[in-house]
UniProtKB/TrEMBL annotation:
TM annotation in the entry: 51-70, 76-93, 126-151, 171-195, 207-228, 248-267, 287-306, 336-355, 375-393, 399-421, 433-452
UniProt xrefs under Pfam families: Aa_trans
Record membrane topology: Multi-pass membrane protein
UniProt feature, compositional bias: Basic residues: 11-23
Main location: membrane
Span of domain Amino acid transporter transmembrane: 49-452
Region annotation Disordered: where it falls in the sequence: 1-40
Native species: Medicago truncatula (Barrel medic)
Source lineage: Eukaryota, Viridiplantae, Streptophyta, Embryophyta, Tracheophyta
Protein name according to UniProt: Putative amino acid transporter, transmembrane domain-containing protein
Subcellular compartments: Membrane
One of the protein's GO biological processes: amino acid transmembrane transport
Entry GO terms, CC: membrane; organelle membrane
Length: 467
């Protein structure tokens, strides 16, 4: 091979790194960490994130608390429509992210908010930032509450469900919810949230995905054992529709599907750090393929295992006797692996939250990474707010549903569709625009019905409790 034949490849690699560095203009749309290390000699040379690191970070963004609620969606929709809905949501997510990337390249945007600002001005930018803030704070509080429930237990309807630590060591001050959540916050959340590059989380993200797979393997193994022993009946294939109310209730699963796939707010952060950003679409498809496979299997086997007894949070089903050898040990393994998974998801979701709050509050300031005091203050303040929310809000599953039906659906589908329909650079095809109209109509209609159904259920529940 001659030196001349190597030149084009060398030039291409230099061009890729050069284009990646050129995106690092310090402006109000600048990413958290500039690519050009010339602006801050305090950092080591960073040549860009790898393909696998980007895949793990995006996959970790996707797989969060939503995985626990997916088996319950199959109970609502039936096995066949439920699995089809998971695949449909994966397709719509891939398409919406593809549109975001296409318009990002055309407008040379470096953030989701910057892309919205490019199409709809400062109000569009602020709307995107507010939606990300609302969605991510809600999600992170839910994560912290679930971790507290799993490790320290929870009380509901006058009954206390023991957590892992209480079950092992008994009730002590150091197995109590407040201390355990505080220790987790100080020892795990704060150090991981202090990284200034999302690529620095690639190893914890890989471990997080592995823990989700561990949960899946255990669930599949339990299902196979119970099938062999004849302890599983045929699950319902289609929804049980008896009246208008039962039809309306079918739409309550939409926020769960949306929340399960929402990852758009981290696409730009991952893209900005990718060594070769032409690989971004491949990163998205690989991550979505991995997550969809996990979702399909855990939904199928979770519903197969618990049937009509599947709870809204399938993790709660692993609090009872499974009726198999070593059932108690497997229950603990499932809960520990999932709690550890959420601990490692936390910093990946926290990263864009801090970035968007900084952009909303300090739009004209220099990049956050160059201001250590602002970075540390914002990190500590946000973690403190999330910690207080997790300790003083007893249960926010209903609020989580409303968040999924509002902020999350805007981030995932309505905003990308609106950017495409605005088509500032005349790059959208006719089929793109038709699909975007369908996405907006489906999103608005299904989520309005879901909000109505949830609100009606809450009002009815309050009336019943008063009587």
């Amino acid at each position: 091979m001659t030196i001349g034949s190597l030149a084009p490849k060398t030039e291409k690699k230099k061009s890729s790194r050069s284009s990646r560095k050129n995106k690092a203009v310090v402006s109000e749309n600048a990413p958290l960490l500039p690519k050009s290390q010339e602006s801050d000699s305090g950092f080591d040379d960073f040549n860009g994130a790898s393909f696998s690191g980007a895949v793990f970070n995006l996959a970790t963004t996707i797989i969060g608390a939503g995985i626990m609620a997916l088996p319950a969606t199959l109970k609502q929709l039936g096995l066949i429509p439920g699995l089809c809905a998971i695949l449909l949501m994966a397709f719509l997510t891939e398409k919406s992210i593809e549109l975001l990337i296409r318009f990002t390249r055309a407008g040379k945007a470096v953030s989701y908010a910057g892309l919205m600002g490019d199409s709809f001005g400062k109000y569009g930018k602020a709307m995107a930032q507010i939606c990300v803030i609302v969605n991510n704070i809600g999600v992170l509080i839910v994560y912290m509450i679930i971790i507290g429930d799993v490790l320290s237990g929870t009380s509901s309807s006058g009954e206390h469900h023991y957590g892992i630590l209480e079950g092992w060591f008994g009730v002590h001050w150091w197995t109590g919810r407040t201390f355990v959540v505080l220790l987790t916050t100080v020892a795990i959340f704060t150090p991981l949230a202090s990284f200034k590059r999302i690529d620095s989380l690639r190893f914890t993200s890989a471990l997080s995905v592995a823990l989700a797979v561990v949960f899946l393997v255990i669930a599949v193994g339990i299902s196979i054992v119970k099938i062999i022993s004849g302890g599983i009946t045929m699950p319902r294939l289609f929804p049980a529709v008896t009246d208008a109310t039962s039809i309306v209730n079918l739409f309550t699963v939409v926020p769960v599907f949306v929340t399960a796939y929402i990852c758009h707010y981290n696409v730009h952060s991952i893209d900005n750090e990718l060594e070769d950003n032409s690989q971004m679409q491949g990163v998205v498809r690989t991550a979505l393929g991995l997550c969809s496979s996990v979702y399909l299997m855990i939904s199928f086997f979770g519903f197969l295992l618990f049937g009509e007894g599947t709870l809204d949070d399938v993790l709660a089903n692993f609090d009872a006797d499974l009726g198999i050898p070593f059932g108690s040990l497997l229950n603990d393994a499932v809960r520990i692996s999932y709690a550890a998974h959420l601990m490692l998801v936390f910093p990946v979701v926290f990263f864009p939250l801090r970035l968007n709050i900084d952009g909303l509050l300090f739009p004209k300031s220099r990049p956050l990474v160059l201001d250590n005091f602002r970075f540390a203050s914002m990190t500590v303040s946000l973690i403190g707010v999330i910690f207080l929310g997790a300790n003083f809000i007893p249960s926010i599953w209903d609020a989580f549903q409303f968040t999924g039906a509002t902020a999350a659906v805007c981030i995932g589908f309505i905003f990308p569709a609106a950017i495409t329909l605005k088509d500032r650079y005349n790059i959208a095809t006719k089929s793109d625009k038709i699909l975007c109209v369908v996405m907006i109509v489906l999103a608005v209609f299904s989520n309005v019905v879901a909000i109505y159904s949830d609100a009606y259920a809450l009002i009815k529940q309050n009336k019943t409790s008063r009587e």
